[in-house]
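Exercise: predict the structure of this protein bound to adenosine-5'-triphosphate.
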Amino acid sequence: MIHVENVTKSFSNGKGIFNVSFRVEEGDIFGFLGPNGAGKSTTIRQLMGFMKPNEGNLSISKYNCWEDAPTIQKFVGYLPGEIALIEKMKGTEFLNLLEDMRSLRGTSRKDALIDRFQFDPSIQIRKMSKGMKQKVGIVAAFMHDPSIYILDEPTSGLDPFMQREFLNLLGEERGRGKTILMSSHYFPEVERTCNRASIIKEGRIVRTDSMTDLRSLQTKKVEVTFEDEVEACSYADQFPDQVESRSYNRVIVPIKGSYDAFVTSLQNHSVTNMEMESQTLEEVFMDIYNHKNAPSDQEEEL
Ligand SMILES: Nc1ncnc2c1ncn2[C@@H]1O[C@H](COP(=O)(O)OP(=O)(O)OP(=O)(O)O)[C@@H](O)[C@H]1O
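Solution:
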């Protein structure tokens, strides 16, 4: 549905994005995750046809993002990272103008969205707070009920309550079969919302995976309590590669992926208690980001 293939866009200062590839399939909520300056907006601007790549191809459905930019800009629900609204207009005037441009008067979801995000659109845009402007941008991106959304840091400027409301809306849209690409630098948001994600660092994709696969990279630490110290020592001696540490009758066993070997290792040992601690997905992302978990060739996995 959304294809980014070997895209390079470099600026005169040497920054930009380099050989970026990923695919968003129909019905995905796809997270595009990276810190400030990683290249998220540069990629998204090319997807919306505002910028031409130096190399590579970007397409949405059957449309080429550069050549068919007007078509793409019409049917995609786009929320820019830096919202440039017509400052002297009132929110209502701006949204009505969009409704007219899209021939939607009376049929759009505008009023329901304004109610949902609880703001007063009758205020002049230049007098609105950042969060209010963001809400106007959200209404503008969602009101024509598009089938594809491209959202650049959509929760930026929203308070936690409104962030939750927005993520609920994304879940509902996904339930209606919509395809969503959203950039974020906030790990828990992507963990909670997306089914797949790409991680971008300094203009290059570090990894693309399903959330399920990213979760399987979580290291769990199991603290096993044996009946007595002799039993714990016997276990630690038998499985020195599995045991991270031992203290009296307890051992710590880190596990990544399958539990089979761990479960088998406990046979014939007298265990009285087990407690498990999981790495958060944010820690997994940070490991990937710092290359501890990245595939050795740094190729993305599609
Ligand atoms: N027009 C431009 N001219 C020169 N450098 C640019 C231009 N646009 C972006 N850059 C640089 O390219 C890099 C990627 O920027 P980009 O805005 O895509 O990052 P981002 O991941 O969206 O960050 P943020 O989360 O801060 O919005 C940055 O180093 C930025 O300074």
